[in-house]
Design brief:
The structure holds two protein chains of two kinds. Chain A is built from five helices and three strands. Chain A is mainly alpha-helical. The longest helix of chain A is centred in the N-terminal third of the chain and has 10 residues, at about 25-30. The radius of gyration of chain A is 13 Å and the shape is globular. The two termini of chain A are about 25 Å apart. Chain B has helices spanning about 10-20, 40-70, 75-100, 125-155, 160-185, 190-205, 225-245, 255-265, and strands spanning about 1-5, 5-10, 110. Helices cover about 65% and strands about 5% of the residues of chain B. Chain B is globular, with a radius of gyration of 19 Å. The two termini of chain B are about 35 Å apart. In chain B, strands 1-3 form a two-stranded antiparallel ribbon. In chain B, helix 4 runs antiparallel to helix 5, helix 4 (about 125-155) runs parallel beside helix 6 and helix 7 packs antiparallel against helix 8 (about 255-265). Classes of the chains: A mainly alpha, B mainly alpha. Chains A and B meet through strand 1 and helix 5 of A and strand 2, helix 2 and helix 3 of B.
Chain lengths: ~100, ~270
């Protein structure tokens, strides 16, 4: 079965008043969209340069065309899925 | 109600949409957040999430219009344009989504995908098409153009300016379809009376916009109330009421008056 990829997702935030969605719901959405949620959270703790240097680890966050399968984690964000996947496309690291 | 999110299929289908992307290849999506304060980024996430939904809903409206134009045996190039506009709106929804995601992701928005377009009330095919065209093209799209121009002027970001410019390139034609349709359709006096009521209700529906909180900062697609309100009222008078009147469709004064009262409470 072919899977569509997410182009607009609600930001997940650590702020209590942001209107974000609850973690369990977030995980369910992430799983349905093919997003590796844990890896996406891990990405949010590293800088973009670190993520690119270790791009093979974070590669599953992006689809084959280099678009994010995950929404950007917001709040304590350093690197985001969209930044990371765009960087992979720009640097021709999709493979 | 469902939380508003969007998906794309990719592959050959993304490439079809990519044909509309000419001139947008140089956009630095990652640079967006560097161009604004965190406070403005938060406002802009709301503006662009709503914008993505609004474009999606406009796509639904044009799909309905295309279907009703077919039934009304409208000129085939008008029908083709309406069908093509569905693609335009999906492309705009894609652009708005990219901006939103680059800003950190969408805000939570509950929408009803089964009620995106108000069904036309009348029986006759031509009048059903006219009702949809007046509401969507002659009111909705006609008001969008000047607001987008104002948003572009105060965008304060080359990226946002480029995105709004690309959207504007299509929106002017979306409004224009309404005027061409009305100039073609052979309407009776009572049809015009009905369409005036439809336009008045469309204008009145915007009254709800003016009860809310105002954005403190302009830019990134957000407008302050002082910028939005004046632009909007001018657009209602010059881009909706006047061209409708030129076609014998006289919007009830009380609808315009009630909108003005909501915008400028005494």
């Amino acid at each position: 079965m072919r899977k569509a990829y997410s182009i607009l997702a609600v930001a997940v935030t650590t702020s209590a008043c942001s209107g974000g969605i609850a973690p369990t719901e977030q995980q369910q959405i992430a799983q349905e969209s093919g997003c590796p949620a844990q890896l996406n959270e891990q990405l949010s703790y590293v800088t973009l340069d670190t993520a690119i240097a270790d791009y093979k680890t974070y590669r599953p966050i992006c689809d084959k065309d280099g678009y994010p399968l995950c929404g950007n984690l917001n709040g304590k964000v350093i690197a985001t899925a969209s930044q990371f996947c765009t960087a992979l496309r720009d640097k021709n690291l999709l493979q | 109600m469902t939380e508003f999110t969007l998906e794309a299929m990719g592959g050959i289908w993304a490439k079809r949409l990519d044909r509309r992307r000419a001139g947008l290849g140089e956009i630095d999506w990652n640079g967006i957040t560097k161009e604004a304060s965190p406070e403005l980024v938060e406002v802009a996430r709301l503006v662009w999430t709503r914008s993505a939904f609004s474009e999606y809903a406009s796509g639904a409206a044009f799909a309905e219009i295309a279907s009703h134009l077919l039934t009304a045996k409208a000129p085939i190039d008008l029908i083709a344009a309406a069908g093509d506009f569905v693609g335009d709106e999906m492309f705009h929804a894609d652009l708005a989504s990219r901006v939103t995601m680059a800003l950190g992701g969408g805000v939570s928005l509950e929408v009803n995908f089964e009620k995106l377009v108000r069904p036309p009330q009348r029986e006759a095919a031509l009048l059903r098409a006219a009702e949809l065209v007046v509401r969507t093209c002659c009111v909705g799209e006609a008001l969008t153009v000047p607001i987008l121009k104002q948003s572009r002027r105060s965008a304060g970001s080359p990226t946002i300016e480029a995105v709004i410019s690309r959207i504007l390139r299509d929106e002017a034609q979306h409004a224009e379809l309404g005027w061409w349709f009305l100039d073609w359709a052979e309407l009776r006096d009572d049809d015009r009376l009905f369409l005036a009521k439809v336009a008045g209700e469309g204008i009145r529906s915007f009254t709800a916009l003016f009860g809310g909180e105002c954005a403190r900062n302009e830019g990134f697609g957000a407008l302050t109330c002082s910028q939005f309100d004046g632009t909007f009222l001018d657009a209602v008078a010059n881009d909706v009421v006047a061209p409708l009147a030129a076609r014998g469709i006289y919007v009830p004064e009380e609808d315009v008056h009630d909108l003005q009262a909501a915008v400028l409470p005494s």
